[in-house]
Protein backbone atom coordinates (compact mmCIF):
# COMPACT_ATOMS: atom_id res chain seq x y z
CA UNK A 1 0.00 0.00 0.00
CA UNK A 2 1.26 3.44 -0.84
CA UNK A 3 -0.27 6.85 -0.89
CA UNK A 4 0.95 9.86 -2.79
CA UNK A 5 -0.18 13.30 -1.74
CA UNK A 6 -0.32 16.12 -4.24
CA UNK A 7 -2.11 19.37 -3.95
CA UNK A 8 -5.40 18.14 -5.28
CA UNK A 9 -5.02 14.40 -5.82
CA UNK A 10 -4.82 11.38 -3.56
CA UNK A 11 -3.58 8.11 -5.06
CA UNK A 12 -3.90 4.87 -3.13
CA UNK A 13 -2.81 1.45 -4.35
CA UNK A 14 -3.27 -2.05 -3.05
CA UNK A 15 -2.56 -5.53 -4.42
CA UNK A 16 -5.32 -8.02 -3.78
CA UNK A 17 -5.09 -11.80 -4.12
CA UNK A 18 -8.14 -12.19 -6.35
CA UNK A 19 -8.84 -11.59 -10.03
CA UNK A 20 -10.32 -8.27 -11.23
CA UNK A 21 -13.71 -9.94 -11.78
CA UNK A 22 -13.95 -10.61 -8.06
CA UNK A 23 -12.60 -7.21 -6.98
CA UNK A 24 -14.82 -5.24 -9.33
CA UNK A 25 -18.03 -6.45 -7.71
CA UNK A 26 -16.91 -4.88 -4.43
CA UNK A 27 -17.45 -1.47 -6.04
CA UNK A 28 -20.86 -2.18 -7.53
CA UNK A 29 -22.67 -4.67 -5.28
CA UNK A 30 -24.26 -3.05 -2.19
CA UNK A 31 -23.86 -6.21 -0.11
CA UNK A 32 -20.16 -6.41 -0.97
CA UNK A 33 -19.23 -2.73 -0.78
CA UNK A 34 -20.32 -2.50 2.87
CA UNK A 35 -17.78 -5.18 3.78
CA UNK A 36 -15.07 -2.53 3.36
CA UNK A 37 -16.63 0.93 3.29
CA UNK A 38 -19.79 2.25 4.87
CA UNK A 39 -22.58 0.62 6.85
CA UNK A 40 -25.33 0.86 4.28
CA UNK A 41 -25.13 1.33 0.54
CA UNK A 42 -27.55 2.31 -2.14
CA UNK A 43 -25.91 1.79 -5.55
CA UNK A 44 -27.06 2.15 -9.13
CA UNK A 45 -23.88 1.05 -10.91
CA UNK A 46 -24.37 2.40 -14.39
CA UNK A 47 -23.11 5.63 -15.93
CA UNK A 48 -25.17 8.42 -14.39
CA UNK A 49 -26.56 6.11 -11.72
CA UNK A 50 -26.38 7.57 -8.23
CA UNK A 51 -25.12 6.01 -5.03
CA UNK A 52 -25.12 6.84 -1.36
CA UNK A 53 -22.96 5.32 1.35
CA UNK A 54 -23.75 5.78 5.03
CA UNK A 55 -20.57 5.98 7.10
CA UNK A 56 -20.88 6.71 10.80
CA UNK A 57 -22.11 10.28 11.01
CA UNK A 58 -21.86 11.16 7.35
CA UNK A 59 -23.23 9.99 4.06
CA UNK A 60 -21.05 10.11 1.00
CA UNK A 61 -22.83 10.21 -2.30
CA UNK A 62 -22.27 10.75 -5.97
CA UNK A 63 -22.87 9.29 -9.38
CA UNK A 64 -21.14 6.58 -11.33
CA UNK A 65 -19.33 8.03 -14.33
CA UNK A 66 -17.68 4.95 -15.81
CA UNK A 67 -18.66 1.35 -15.16
CA UNK A 68 -16.38 -0.82 -17.25
CA UNK A 69 -16.23 -4.31 -15.70
CA UNK A 70 -13.92 -5.70 -14.61
CA UNK A 71 -11.19 -3.11 -15.08
CA UNK A 72 -12.41 0.41 -14.42
CA UNK A 73 -15.01 2.20 -12.37
CA UNK A 74 -15.23 5.95 -11.74
CA UNK A 75 -17.66 7.98 -9.72
CA UNK A 76 -18.14 11.44 -8.33
CA UNK A 77 -17.76 11.73 -4.57
CA UNK A 78 -18.95 14.21 -2.03
CA UNK A 79 -20.55 14.87 1.30
CA UNK A 80 -23.93 16.63 1.30
CA UNK A 81 -23.70 19.80 3.34
CA UNK A 82 -20.01 20.22 2.71
CA UNK A 83 -19.02 23.55 1.26
CA UNK A 84 -15.59 22.33 0.28
CA UNK A 85 -16.30 18.74 -0.74
CA UNK A 86 -19.73 19.07 -2.28
CA UNK A 87 -21.35 16.14 -4.05
CA UNK A 88 -20.13 16.13 -7.62
CA UNK A 89 -17.13 18.29 -6.76
CA UNK A 90 -14.49 15.57 -6.83
CA UNK A 91 -14.09 12.26 -8.61
CA UNK A 92 -12.72 8.85 -7.71
CA UNK A 93 -11.33 6.57 -10.40
CA UNK A 94 -10.49 2.94 -9.69
CA UNK A 95 -8.39 0.96 -12.17
CA UNK A 96 -8.00 -2.79 -11.72
CA UNK A 97 -5.05 -4.38 -13.48
CA UNK A 98 -4.40 -8.14 -13.51
CA UNK A 99 -1.16 -8.88 -11.66
CA UNK A 100 -0.31 -12.56 -11.76
CA UNK A 101 -3.09 -14.32 -9.89
CA UNK A 102 -4.14 -11.10 -8.27
CA UNK A 103 -5.19 -7.55 -9.02
CA UNK A 104 -3.42 -4.25 -8.61
CA UNK A 105 -5.94 -1.65 -7.48
CA UNK A 106 -5.09 1.98 -8.16
CA UNK A 107 -7.54 4.49 -6.74
CA UNK A 108 -7.19 8.15 -7.67
CA UNK A 109 -9.26 10.83 -5.96
CA UNK A 110 -9.14 14.04 -7.98
CA UNK A 111 -10.60 17.48 -7.51
CA UNK A 112 -9.77 17.82 -3.82
CA UNK A 113 -9.15 21.33 -2.62
CA UNK A 114 -6.67 22.47 0.00
CA UNK A 115 -9.55 23.42 2.27
CA UNK A 116 -11.08 19.95 2.27
CA UNK A 117 -10.97 20.06 5.97
CA UNK A 118 -13.79 18.88 8.15
CA UNK A 119 -15.63 17.54 5.19
CA UNK A 120 -14.06 14.40 3.90
CA UNK A 121 -13.93 13.35 7.45
CA UNK A 122 -15.25 9.82 7.67
CA UNK A 123 -11.71 8.51 7.80
CA UNK A 124 -10.84 10.68 10.74
CA UNK A 125 -13.92 9.60 12.57
CA UNK A 126 -12.94 6.01 12.16
CA UNK A 127 -9.39 6.72 13.17
CA UNK A 128 -9.72 9.36 15.81
CA UNK A 129 -13.30 9.25 17.00
CA UNK A 130 -13.61 12.95 16.32
CA UNK A 131 -17.34 12.94 15.93
CA UNK A 132 -17.44 16.56 16.91
CA UNK A 133 -16.03 17.36 13.51
CA UNK A 134 -19.26 16.15 12.00
CA UNK A 135 -20.48 19.57 11.04
CA UNK A 136 -17.26 20.19 9.16
CA UNK A 137 -16.29 23.43 7.54
CA UNK A 138 -19.19 22.99 5.20
CA UNK A 139 -22.24 25.14 5.13
CA UNK A 140 -25.79 24.07 5.86
CA UNK A 141 -26.94 20.76 4.52
CA UNK A 142 -27.81 20.14 0.93
CA UNK A 143 -29.09 17.08 -0.82
CA UNK A 144 -26.98 14.66 -2.78
CA UNK A 145 -26.04 15.74 -6.28
CA UNK A 146 -26.87 19.36 -5.69
CA UNK A 147 -23.51 21.01 -6.15
CA UNK A 148 -22.89 24.15 -4.15
CA UNK A 149 -19.83 25.83 -5.49
CA UNK A 150 -20.12 25.82 -9.22
CA UNK A 151 -17.00 23.86 -10.14
CA UNK A 152 -18.92 20.72 -10.88
CA UNK A 153 -17.97 19.30 -14.24
CA UNK A 154 -20.07 16.26 -13.44
CA UNK A 155 -23.25 18.11 -12.75
CA UNK A 156 -24.59 17.10 -16.14
CA UNK A 157 -24.76 13.59 -14.76
CA UNK A 158 -27.32 14.70 -12.25
CA UNK A 159 -30.06 14.88 -14.82
CA UNK B 1 5.62 43.69 2.63
CA UNK B 2 2.91 42.99 5.16
CA UNK B 3 3.86 42.46 8.73
CA UNK B 4 2.14 39.19 9.24
CA UNK B 5 1.97 37.29 12.42
CA UNK B 6 2.03 33.75 11.13
CA UNK B 7 2.59 31.19 13.87
CA UNK B 8 4.62 28.07 13.29
CA UNK B 9 2.65 25.07 12.06
CA UNK B 10 0.88 23.35 14.93
CA UNK B 11 0.59 19.62 15.49
CA UNK B 12 -2.44 17.88 13.96
CA UNK B 13 -3.91 17.41 17.43
CA UNK B 14 -3.96 21.15 18.10
CA UNK B 15 -5.51 21.79 14.72
CA UNK B 16 -8.15 19.10 15.21
CA UNK B 17 -8.97 20.37 18.70
CA UNK B 18 -9.37 23.86 17.31
CA UNK B 19 -11.67 22.53 14.61
CA UNK B 20 -13.80 20.55 17.05
CA UNK B 21 -16.05 23.51 17.78
CA UNK B 22 -18.82 24.72 15.48
CA UNK B 23 -18.25 28.40 16.26
CA UNK B 24 -14.58 28.14 15.39
CA UNK B 25 -15.40 26.33 12.16
CA UNK B 26 -17.86 29.12 11.39
CA UNK B 27 -15.10 31.69 11.94
CA UNK B 28 -12.86 29.79 9.52
CA UNK B 29 -15.65 29.71 6.97
CA UNK B 30 -15.96 33.49 7.24
CA UNK B 31 -12.27 34.09 6.64
CA UNK B 32 -11.69 31.21 4.22
CA UNK B 33 -11.61 33.51 1.21
CA UNK B 34 -11.59 36.96 2.77
CA UNK B 35 -9.58 38.87 5.34
CA UNK B 36 -11.90 40.25 8.01
CA UNK B 37 -11.48 42.50 11.05
CA UNK B 38 -12.22 40.97 14.43
CA UNK B 39 -15.25 43.21 14.86
CA UNK B 40 -16.85 41.99 11.68
CA UNK B 41 -16.25 38.38 12.68
CA UNK B 42 -17.82 39.02 16.08
CA UNK B 43 -20.80 40.72 14.45
CA UNK B 44 -21.65 37.43 12.71
CA UNK B 45 -22.27 35.71 16.03
CA UNK B 46 -24.72 36.05 18.88
CA UNK B 47 -21.80 35.25 21.19
CA UNK B 48 -20.19 37.97 23.27
CA UNK B 49 -17.23 39.69 21.69
CA UNK B 50 -15.10 38.20 24.44
CA UNK B 51 -16.20 34.68 23.56
CA UNK B 52 -15.43 35.30 19.90
CA UNK B 53 -12.03 36.68 20.87
CA UNK B 54 -11.31 33.51 22.79
CA UNK B 55 -12.23 31.39 19.79
CA UNK B 56 -10.00 33.52 17.60
CA UNK B 57 -7.20 32.99 20.12
CA UNK B 58 -7.57 29.21 19.95
CA UNK B 59 -7.56 29.30 16.16
CA UNK B 60 -4.47 31.51 16.14
CA UNK B 61 -2.65 29.22 18.54
CA UNK B 62 -3.42 26.30 16.30
CA UNK B 63 -1.97 28.28 13.42
CA UNK B 64 -5.28 28.31 11.57
CA UNK B 65 -5.63 32.08 11.53
CA UNK B 66 -3.16 34.61 10.23
CA UNK B 67 -3.35 37.99 11.94
CA UNK B 68 -2.42 41.28 10.32
CA UNK B 69 -2.55 44.64 12.01
CA UNK B 70 -3.71 47.67 10.12
CA UNK B 71 -3.67 50.70 12.39
CA UNK B 72 -5.70 49.69 15.40
CA UNK B 73 -7.56 46.97 13.51
CA UNK B 74 -6.64 43.32 13.54
CA UNK B 75 -7.48 41.45 10.38
CA UNK B 76 -7.75 37.70 10.17
CA UNK B 77 -7.66 35.20 7.37
CA UNK B 78 -7.47 31.42 7.12
CA UNK B 79 -3.96 30.02 6.99
CA UNK B 80 -4.50 27.16 4.55
CA UNK B 81 -1.05 25.75 5.27
CA UNK B 82 -2.11 24.89 8.80
CA UNK B 83 -4.55 22.40 7.34
CA UNK B 84 -1.76 20.35 5.78
CA UNK B 85 -1.22 18.04 8.78
CA UNK B 86 -4.92 17.30 8.82
CA UNK B 87 -4.82 16.79 5.09
CA UNK B 88 -2.26 14.11 5.65
CA UNK B 89 -4.71 12.36 7.93
CA UNK B 90 -7.37 12.78 5.31
CA UNK B 91 -5.06 11.24 2.77
CA UNK B 92 -5.15 8.01 4.77
CA UNK B 93 -8.86 7.58 4.17
CA UNK B 94 -8.54 5.72 0.88
CA UNK B 95 -5.45 3.67 1.75
CA UNK B 96 -7.26 2.53 4.90
CA UNK B 97 -10.35 1.73 2.86
CA UNK B 98 -8.33 -0.30 0.32
CA UNK B 99 -6.69 -2.20 3.14
CA UNK B 100 -10.14 -3.16 4.39
CA UNK B 101 -11.13 -4.08 0.83
CA UNK B 102 -8.13 -6.38 0.53
CA UNK B 103 -8.95 -8.04 3.83
CA UNK B 104 -12.63 -8.46 2.94
CA UNK B 105 -11.89 -10.05 -0.42
CA UNK B 106 -9.05 -12.27 0.70
CA UNK B 107 -11.16 -13.49 3.62
CA UNK B 108 -14.14 -14.24 1.40
CA UNK B 109 -12.03 -15.75 -1.39
CA UNK B 110 -9.17 -17.63 0.23
CA UNK B 111 -6.64 -19.03 -2.20
CA UNK B 112 -6.60 -22.84 -2.40
CA UNK B 113 -3.43 -24.29 -0.89
CA UNK B 114 -0.51 -24.56 -3.32
CA UNK B 115 -0.58 -27.86 -5.15
CA UNK B 116 2.50 -29.98 -4.74
CA UNK B 117 4.19 -30.91 -8.02
Question: How would you describe this structure to a colleague?
Answer:
The complex is a heterodimer of chains A (159) and B (117). By secondary structure, chain A is mainly beta. Chain A has a single domain, classed as START domain (Alpha-D-Glucose-1,6-Bisphosphate, Chain A, domain 4, 2-Layer Sandwich), CATH 3.30.530.20. Chain A contains three helices and eight strands; from the N terminus they run E-E-H-H-E-E-E-E-E-E-H. Chain A has helices spanning 20-25, 30-33, 122-128, and strands at residues 2-5, 9-16, 40-43, 50-55, 58-68, 72-77, 90-99, 102-110. In chain A, strands 1-2-8-7-6-5-4-3 form an eight-stranded antiparallel beta sheet. In chain A, a hairpin with a 2-residue loop joins strand 7 and strand 8. Chain A is globular. Chain B is α+β, with helices and mostly antiparallel strands. Chain B has a single domain (4-108), classed as Orthogonal Bundle (Arc Repressor Mutant, subunit A). Chain B has helices at residues 12-19, 22-30, 38-43, 49-61, 84-90, 93-108; strands at 4-5, 36-37, 65-70, 73-78. In chain B, strand 3 (65-70) and strand 4 form a beta hairpin. Chain B starts with a strand and ends in a 9-residue tail after the last helix. The model of chain B has no long low-confidence stretch (mean pLDDT 83). At the A-B interface, strand 1, strand 2, strand 8 and helix 3 of A face helix 2, helix 5 and helix 6 of B.
Amino acid sequence: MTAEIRSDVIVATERIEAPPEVVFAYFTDPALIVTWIGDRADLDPQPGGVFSLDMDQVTACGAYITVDPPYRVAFSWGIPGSGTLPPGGSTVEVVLTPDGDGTMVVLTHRGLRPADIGTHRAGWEHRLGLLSLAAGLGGPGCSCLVPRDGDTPLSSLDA
Amino acid sequence: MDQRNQPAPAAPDAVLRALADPHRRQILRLVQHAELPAGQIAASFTLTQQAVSQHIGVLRQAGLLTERREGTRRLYTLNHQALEPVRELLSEFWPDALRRLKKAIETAHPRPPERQP
